[in-house]
Amino acid sequence: MIRKITQEMRRRIFAARDFASVENDKLLAADYDVCVIGSGPGGSVAAATLAQAGLKVALVERGPFLPADDSNFRVLDMSNRMGHLELTSGLRTILYQGNAVGGGSLLYGAVAMKPPQFVFDEWKELSGVDEIDREKLEPHYRHVAEVMSATEQTRELENEPNAIVRRMADALGKPDGIETVARYTEGCAGVGLCSFGCGFDLKGNMINSFLPLALATGSLTVFTECEAQTIAGEKRSRNFKATGPDIVMRDFASGRVTRRARIKARAYALAAGAFFSSALLLRNRETPNREKVGAKVYLQPHAQIFALFDRPVTKRGAMKDGQYIPYNGVPSIYNFTGFLKEHGFFWLASILFPANLASFISHLPPEEHFAIMRQFHQTMSVTLTLRDDPAKSRIKIKDGRAQLDFRESRQDIENLRQCFLLAARGFLAVGARRVFLPMLRPPKIERESDLKQIERLKFGYDDLLLYSDHTSGGNPYGKDAQHGVVDGQGRVFGSENVYVADSSLFPTASGINPSWTIMALSHRVSSQLAKSLAYQL
Amino acid sequence: METFDSLFVELDSIDRHLSRRKFLKIVVFAAAPLRLAFDGGDREFLRKVAATLIPPEALSRTGIDVIANVEHLLQRGSAEHRAKILRLLTWSRRVSFIYGGENVARRARDSRFVLAQKMSKALSALCLVSFWGDERALPLIESGEAQR
To answer: Which of A157, A280, A335, B20 is deepest in the core (most CB within 10 A)?
Structure first.
């Protein structure tokens, strides 16, 4: 069910310009029960759970509030609108995050999946926390599914790119590897540009689900264009007690700083994503167990593999209200997970639009590039996701800025090689006449014999077109401070009042689209926090 | 072309003393002033780069102004993102002399320096997305009629 943020609710959402004068200062100076940092799937679920429990909540978001009617399907309007880019050390891999109220939910493909059992087994073994269990999390998954209208997709929705993904699985001898997913929508229009925020507002995201629920309580205040820089606090005799995030309010369009302040609350819930949540803790040298924070972050990187066919595989769209609407059908109803356990990857049919292909094949000479662009409807791509285990992946603070010091492992490279080989083989088997690999200088793959080139390729992340919007880890669960950064309740070891409620809780990469699990874990952490704060009152 | 070959020889000789990657980093990362808007030089540079990536007939037939589209893209994003793109442009202009001026996007993709390859990729993508992201480019695409 799509909920709306009403005009009345919008009065509780503040931007940097609202603090250019002192009239709203009382909001910054107020005492809150909980301050939640980040408004993506982790933060919004936490804010809603806490506000619905009657607690006074401040929600801090780095990006602006973009109402649903701000979204459309125009590439030129949307492609730079809601995201924030960071790069791993050496400019190697792009880290892509939501940068507006709603965070990553504005950009995601709305796929709801749970990690397979072997991932939960690994999490339990590594953390020693028994509650991080698929069965025990079930009530939280159910709550999220209900609010987000997670709906099982069916074979009737299969468009040609999805059919190709299914036929590739057959050709690779893994028909059982096709899993039909659930998506956060009751009625997708099949435009296939979910990453632009959905101009029809049919995709379930935070601003049409948990945030209206939270705002309806009247207990939530949202500070947008408000960047938390560190969690200030003091070491007491035994524990660390946080005194608030130090925030900077910066106008989205001009970059002008309007205010610096500290927001006071009884407890703090970090939900700024694996990268920023770890950075917030690391910037304060007093943070307990600091050497463990951000020590291992998983990128779970993605890349696209395109294929060119002899026949059209997508439909021409239509112009409506000055914008081109593709109408290609629901973009991904299947995840192909046939090699997830063995080689650590899965793929699904990608979101498709001409500018995406134009950028992907930009390595080609202009004449060839133009010729392939003209055949856009004969192309499709799969987006691969690697469940990675990096050799080194540590968040460091350099000159005040967070940086991910990263080195891929040999095993991850070999898994990617297998993925390229199998995807190319699958595409060729179902009729593709050329396959484009995600490399700065890819080999030309047109027939089975060309696959030998992939076997011989020497490459690292430097040579690949990878991006990560499933970044996780950094503040993992642990049974004690030796095994993790937070305890079974999501509280940072050695702290009195700092909690984590986002993907940084994951002990390893989730192996599938993580949003459902982020929301379920956030609901678990915030429900327990609400009970504990109510008890203290 | 000879000019660029000789430049590469120069670079290689420097490379004996410095690692290639470090040398290139020194060239591109030398302090660039923070800017939030294009200047005339940026526009001219981008216009010329775009003309090396997109056939002139396509540009004239569609009437697409790539530079106006790039500026629109940047206006829709955050000030921080705009600053990052402008920094990319500054660095690209700085090293473009090594790769034939406006041909930088095409030639740097064959560089042995990964950093130059990435810069080429980013610059090409900026121009190409600004062209193919414009609805006026769609008539150039052959009609599609998928089976389902």
So the answer is: A280
